[in-house]
Amino acid sequence: MAAAAAAAAAAVGGSQSPQPEVPAPGLALDKAATAAHLKAALSRPDNRAGAEELQALLERVLSAERPLAAAADGEEAAAASGGGGPGAAEEEALEWCKCLLAGGGGYDEFCAAVRAYDPAALCGLVWTANFVAYRCRTCGISPCMSLCAECFHQGDHTGHDFNMFRSQAGGACDCGDSNVMRESGFCKRHQIKSSSNIPCVPKDLLMMSEFVLPRFIFCLIQYLREGYNEPAADVPSEKDLNKVLQLLEPQISFLEDLTKMGGAMRSVLTQVLTNQQNYKDLTSGLGENACAKKSHEKYLIALKSSGLTYPEDKLVYGIQESSAGTSTLAVQGFAGATGTLGQLDSSDEEDQDGSQGLGKRKRVKLSSNTKDQSIMDVLKHKSFLEELLFWTIKYEFPQKMVTFLLNMLPDQEYKVAFTKTFVQHYAFIMKTLKKSHESDTMSNRIVHISVQLFSNEELARQVTEECQLLDIMVTVLLYMMESCLIKSELQDEENSLHVVVNCGEALLKNNTYWPLVSDFINILSHQSVAKRFLEDHGLLVTWMNFVSFFQGMNLNKRELNEHVEFESQTYYAAFAAELEACAQPMWGLLSHCKVRETQEYTRNVVRYCLEALQDWFDAINFVDEPAPNQVTFHLPLHRYYAMFLSKAVKCQELDLDSVLPDQEMLMKLMIHPLQIQASLAEIHSNMWVRNGLQIKGQAMTYVQSHFCNSMIDPDIYLLQVCASRLDPDYFISSVFERFKVVDLLTMASQHQNTVLDAEHERSMLEGALTFLVILLSLRLHLGMSDDEILRAEMVAQLCMNDRTHSSLLDLIPENPNPKSGIIPGSYSFESVLSAVADFKAPVFEPGGSMQQGMYTPKAEVWDHEFDPVMVILRTVYRRDVQSAMDRYTAFLKQSGKFPGNPWPPYKKRTPLHPSYKGLMRLLHCKTLHIVLFTLLYKILMDHQNLSEHVLCMVLYLIELGLENSDEEESDEEASVCGPERCHDSWFPGSNLVSNMRHFINYVRVRVPETAPEVKKDSPASTSSDSLGSLQNSGTAQVFSLVAERRKKFQEIINRSSSEANQVVRPKTSNKWSAPGSAPQLTTAILEIKESILSLLIKLHHKLSGKQNSYYPPWLDDIEILIQPEIPKYSHGDGITAVERILLKAALQSKMNKRIIEEICRKVTPPVPPKKVTAAEKKTLDKEERRQKARERQQKLLAEFASRQKSFMETAMDVDSPESDIPMEITTAEPQVSEAIYDCVICGQSGPSSEDRPTGLVVLLQASSVLGQCRDNIEPKKLPITEEEQIYPWDTCAAVHDVRLSLLQRYFKDSSCLLAVSIGWEGGVYVQTCGHTLHIDCHKSYMESLRNDQVLQGFSVDKGEFTCPLCRQFANSVLPCYPGSNVENNPWQRPSSKSIQDLIKEVEELQGRPGAFPVSISSETNLSKEMESVMKDIKNTTQKKYRDYSKTPGSPDNDFLFMYSVARTNLELELIHRGGNLCSGGASTAGKRSCLNQLFHVLALHMRLYSIDSEYNPWRKLTQLVEEMNSQLGNEEQQPEVPVLYHDVTSLLLIQILMMPQPLRKDHFTCIVKVLFTLLYTQALVAVSVKCNEEDRSAWKHTGALKKNICDAEKSYEVLLSFVISELSKGKLYHEEGTQECAMVSPVAWSSESMEKYLQDFCLPFLRITSLLQHHLFGEDLPSCQEEEEFSVLSSCLGLLPTFYQTEHPFISASCLDWPVPAFDIISQWCFEINSFTERHAEQGKALLIQESRWKLPHLLQLPENYNTIFQYYHRKTCSVCTKVPKDPAVCLVCGTFVCLKGLCCKQQSYCECVLHSQNCGAGTGIFLLINASVIIIIRGHRFCLWGSVYLDAHGEEDRDLRRGKPLYICKERYKVLEQQWISHTFDHINKRWGPHYNGL
After folding, report:
1. Using an 8 Å Cβ cutoff, are 638 and 673 in contact?
2. 3-state DSSP call for residue 1039?
3. In a designed cystine with 12, which of 291, 1233, 1468, 1752 is the match (CB 3.0 to 4.6 A)?
4. pLDDT over 70 at 1026, yes or no
5. DSSP per residue over 1511-1556, as a string?
């Protein structure tokens, strides 16, 4: 062994010595033999010799690679690497290991053998980020439970609450682990505890492994040690680390494979990894091996920095010095201030006393235990596992290592050992994380591991007890945060001793702390762990210390002058930190304090929380006034305190007072939450606008659904608690002072507000009142049960807007432990939802926006439960409150409950929990009554700055007070009222009921000298008041809100009545007044003589606009008082509210009832002081002016509406392709023969002329929809297994392609190109919106678009634009041909010429080339335009869809292309009509059809190519050729296509487009008649080929018998028999091979079936022809039943003789009108076929059978459940690049699987989807994105997201599968998609298009 080691050392030295090979050259040759030999040696009882031999071998094999690794690493031994690349030796070593493990056998067999012994009770599959897994909440015990797809689908989870999710950090499958999930959810494989029936592992199987693996792992560790260089400047060079890892890839993979061999191998590995002896032997036995020594030194250096405390850290813990055994280990948090404030630019001012304070405050007590030392200390390793984990951390968690460590977890023994090791390294992990550059990836990997360990309660408990897990976590958290503390500027900037986290630091900004917090929350979810935490006082103290770091962070200071330059976005970090680091652990702890037995825990938390708060108040030097213009939204200590209080009262039956502090502390506690409420109002009043948008963002986040129950709810609750225990007058005056509206509360009509601008007063007053209303009405923590809360939350959200199910789930605050994903009460959620809301299924307007399934409140919810208070509390945007009120108003109008403008309804509250009864005292305190009185008076007197909203809330508060008054007062006591009794205050007592009737006569006010009150002579006549100073009779006392509050504060603090009278007035007055700025205040005395009751009655008059409108109802009906029916819930407006209040007041006291009656008896109108008349006049003027303005507005609106209506009549509705709005073209009067067009740009109308042509706005697009028709009705299904594939053989496009190439093989090219149509794929479809414009106007319009920079989604360079009138997308202009209107065509008169004459005329007209009214030679504007539009049409489609001729660029090509364009448009219109013309009518599409114009353009160009008269098919159809044989003469030339092989519809278009335009009707009919004879003959031939031999002879026979009857040419039997006999002469029928039998129909042909076949064969032609006739001559299409479609169309086309009787059954043959004797022409046609079939009988036959009955095109049929698509496609490999695409997509037209955006499949800069859209849809592609469930449309160079056709059970899309709920097909949506595809309306209906730059 020593020799080998020496050799290795020598090798390092650099001499590449051959030594290592010497000892056993034989071994190297045959590894297997060696292995077998060693195995045998080792299995002997005395195996020492074998063991030594093996050791020597391993030493040699595993060291041979050392120098190479070093070389690869770069610096150490660059020279040393002589032989082979770095990889060779490693591979060799791995081969050796495999051989040795297998002990001579084959490695694969060995693997299989080991697997057989796998007791697979757990799945344990480990996955990395982006893996798709499942979580079932029904089966999960731990919220983090997850399953791999396989286990999930093998288990039974029907009806469970599960979802699919994309793993973010990676995870492992928990199937089979009963600690994490219920056994019922296990899958079939892991249900059986299979350990019993698995045999014991034979000893010798794994024996070699036990010897080999320790060496192998040690070798790996050596590598890791060696590869690591301690970074110089704290920056590990990531390149180096990654290089080492790449080298080690094979080794780690090898280990990973071992773990996958199952339980047997894992237990061996566990032994190896945890065995301390092995580790000791191998790591200490380094001997003289220099290389090993060096790596060991590196290891020691790396270890040094592993403790939490090492010199370069600024915070030095006092822990090293203190002896280990002391009772309480006080870890001094900061060793002296300078140490800490090193970060804070510590300056010399920090004298002794400051540092002491800091030290004292920041003392972190850890529980007394020597072990704590270990948290701080350098690590010591005792086993391979520990060192492996150490290096894993050092190398920042490489994925492979993580996977290896996790793969081992199913082994129980390993799991425990690994968890302990992980905890031991915890501090080190977090330290590394903090420094890491890739902290995101690293965080994910850490959580990937920790979530597997800490989700298991048993394990977590064990580690907490044995390894101090909680102490470690809390300490590490503290340590982490302490690195980014700054001095708090809250309150007292100079002397503050408080430190807070700095939210701008990377640690917070990037959320680096989340793995730690996430682990902490995870372990606190276990009851046993949480209990330990709550019992451990030391931990609680430390924790509160930690929380106080966040108290007051992210302080906002109001900008008063300049707008801030830079808006900081730190508030995101602040809110996230408070939610994650403070609130979530708090909710975790609260969840364990649910029962009475846990009272002790609450007491602990509350106690330490109050201590921390007290410390905080001391640290910021807080006395009683908060500093102005500052606010922080972060008070986690307050919120901890509040939430534990709430829990204590609600669940643990604790007495509230026992956990409340003294009054002084309560007063302090209330200040900051109240400050936040006031600041919210200020922010909404735009007082903080100079702080930028971010401050609004904070105000919104504070109330937003994810934060509200950790922020605003506890704050309000805390204020409610304070209010219920403090003096009510003090509390109320504090509120108004905080809201800065004290000065406004005066009876004077003018006042000065020293702290608030006038424009903010009103909204601040509303804010203050709203806050009081919420404070007094909200019962969230004051007695509502969980279900009631859920219901209230849900109602509030639904009232604002209809909501989808997922947005409701999101908006309703849960106990935010989002890690749990469990909503506490997800079961009750559904039941509450169904109780309060109705489901509105998704609606589809074709072309409308895609709606989702929504929930909308039931009527009874609006009627009884709508709660404006809850709505206001929960709205993030103020507009939502308005929205809720509007919806409420609409409901009341609709249900007829209330016609006018209702006020927010008054709702009776749930009763208060007894502990909080004190809250209602607020309603019965004089201060509030004075405020209410003042406001009522001001409203009545129309002072400025008051709104209906203020009145509404004043009345609300009065009503609340009446509802909650306790004592029914006796009448005698109250009779002695009057000014004498009240010396110091306005009201005699504090009960609202009695104060309501108390009259106030005089009030002394302070007013500015300029006020109207001062100028009056007699002071008594004026009226007004002031809370600045309010007075009753002439005594000189002044009542001031501020003074009142100071006085109470003093009282509370001094607790002595003697001092209570010394009012601290002077202090306040100068606090707020800005000296010199305002006019002098002077005192005036006002006469009021009103009580609250009298003010209410006058208000009633004022609101109703009538004098004496209030009449006490009980005077008529005394019943009202005896049995008052006061509903819990009342609708109505201000008048009804006043009536309700007066009724309640009368009910509560007889005295009030008397006084109300008295006031009403006086009936004198209220006499306001003189000055009001001016104001009244003003209001009257105002009314009048408003009335006039209203009338003016009505008039304008009416005019506008009529304009709009007329526009809407001319413009069509873009959204629906079938709208019936007539197009301008057809609007000409009958007597005018020229069509008149309106130009939508210049607005002039006139005919289209040659020099100034008009054109139609059109969109040209290439389309392959026609090519997708198939001949079977069932649409194809999307393949969802490997077996299902779609082959495009049976599509229309494929069949036509085959036909054309077959013809081109045997016949003359130019003739072939006339025999078919193209354009089934890539045909050009032309559509128009029906608007016209002058072509020159259009050009200037395009110019202006070109110069316009703001372009939306279309490219002007490609000629794209939107119609100037209706904004429909377009890309060309189709010139209108000058001349007659379609309707009154002079050519339409039927003529009496015989068919023979007409045939001659047609032929002559076709031969005359320039017979066009416009001669082409003269270049007019019109002809230029026609040429340019023809160019556009050609460029619309790709070249491959235009060129079919064998000689490129031949004119025949253009010819074919042009008439095919006409064909494409006719066929598509037929499809839009549903494939037949039964519906008839003037076509809806026809109104906007441009076929007429298109025909002119095409005809003009077709006539440029005149056909040689010999080749003109017209001759062959209408004349007999004399000598037939002449054709056969020239054999070498390819023959022409026989007439019977021609496509008749194509012939029709050729004939018509060759005629001069406009065409005469009788010529048209003539052409149709002639072509029908050919078509009919083709039908007969096709039948004859389909029949079998017997049928044929039978038909031949029957027909021959009838040949001599008079009408023989019109009888199909005769004609058929003739055709059969003619074709029998050739070889057509001879080749009856077996393969033909397939085509033969087994049914014998009856005459009915024969007739049906012939009609079906001819129908497509008749349909196209009828459509053409309709467009050319403007005739309506008759509607009919499907059975009679043939007869109706043929008579409409003039094929049926007029004298034809309809009695006997209709026979298609009766439409025939032979131009020449039938039998002659037929035999001539058949002769051509025979001469062809002489040579090619097979093909001859194939060409005759044309499939003419195509079904409508459909998209692929999709499966019901989305999961079936997802599971098949998301792991499917792409056929092109054979990788699994990152973004897989599938084409819904043909089922092709493509990589979206994949660079792997890019060809010539086109990505695969774009390429496919061109090949499959000629530029239109419809793709389903597998990972997003969304459909994307590609149209040319643009794309848009269309939406999803899969919705969940609640009718919602789940884009990107974020929620992962099961999705089901929505057939309506899919129909809409298919409809848009077929009708080519994607461009018009979808609005959001963007360019894709070929990158999809």
Report:
1. yes
2. strand
3. 291
4. no
5. T-HHHHHHS--S-SGGGGS--SSPPPPPGGGS-HHHHHHHHHHHSP
Residue 355 in this model has a pLDDT that exceeds 80 = no
pLDDT digit string (tens) for 437-462? Answer: 888 888 888 999 999 899 888 899 99
Distances (CA, A) of 1245 to 856, 1234, 1248, 1330: 51, 12, 9, 15
Angle between helices 1612-1624 and 1589-1601 (to 10 degrees): 120
Alpha helices in 578-635 (DSSP H): 584-590, 599-619
Phi, psi of 1749 (to 5 degrees): -100, 85
Q: What are phi and psi of 154, to 5 degrees?
A: -80, -20
> If DSSP codes are grouped into helix, strand and coil, which group holds residue 134?
strand
Digit-coded pLDDT (tens) for 162-214: 889 888 888 899 898 888 888 888 988 887 665 556 667 776 777 777 777 88
Confidence of residue 1822 (pLDDT cuts 50, 70, 90): very high
Q: Is the alpha carbon torsion for 346, 349, 353, 354 positive or negative? A: negative
Tokens read off for 1571: 């072509």
Contact 477, 517 (CB under 8 A): yes
Average pLDDT, the chain: 78
pLDDT reported for residue 642 = 95
Half-sphere exposure of 1510 (CA within 13 A, CB side): 3
CB 1771 within 8 A of CB 1780: yes
In single-letter form, the type of residue at position 312 comes to E
Please state the separation of Cα 1836 from the chain's center in Å: 27
1806-1813 own/partner pairs: CB under 8 Å, 24+ apart: 1806/1894, 1807/1894, 1807/1895, 1807/1896, 1808/1776, 1809/1785, 1809/1834, 1809/1896, 1810/1834, 1810/1892, 1810/1894, 1810/1895, 1810/1896, 1812/1787
Q: Which long-range contacts (CB under 8 A, 24 or more apart) does 822-831 make?
A: 822/137, 822/143, 824/786, 825/786, 825/787, 825/790, 826/137, 826/161, 828/786, 828/787, 828/790, 829/790
Q: What is the pLDDT of residues 1412-1439, one digit of tens each?
A: 444 444 578 888 888 889 899 988 988 8
Omega into 1558 within 30° of 0, i.e. cis? yes
Buried-exposed string 714-728: b where 16+ CB fall within 10 A, e elsewhere? bbbbbbbbbbbbbbb
Q: Of 1134, 1135, 1139, 1140, whose CA–CA distance to 903 is shortest?
A: 1134
At residue 1468, the pLDDT reads 92
- Residue 1654: Cβ within 10 Å count: 22
Euclidean distance between CA atoms 1031 and 1093, whole angstroms: 20
Could you tell me the CA-to-CA distances from 901 to 495, 856, 889 in Å, in that order?
55, 22, 7
**Could you tell me which of 398, 303, 395, 293 has the C-alpha nearest to residue 76?**
293
pLDDT: which is higher, 841 or 1409: 841
Q: What is the pTM of this model?
A: 0.81
- The predicted-structure confidence for 931-972, as pLDDT tens digits, reads as follows 999 999 999 888 877 888 999 999 999 999 988 876 554 443
Closest by alpha carbon to 946, among 677, 678, 749, 680? Answer: 749
Report residue 1832 as tokens.
Answer: 């994307």
Q: Which helix (H) or strand (E) holds 1833?
A: strand 1830-1835
Which of 1467, 1240, 1501 is closest to 1377 using CA atoms? 1501
Between vectors from CA 889 to CA 885 and to CA 895, what angle results, nearest 5°?
145
Residue 1207 makes CB contacts below 8 A (sequence gap 6+) with: none
Helices (H) and strands (E) counted in the chain, each on its own, are 76, 32
Buried residues in 357-368 as b, exposed as e (16+ CB within 10 A):
bbbebbbbbbbe
User: In whole angstroms, what is the distance from residue 576 CA to residue 588 CA?
Assistant: 17
pLDDT at residue 65 greater than cutoff 70: no
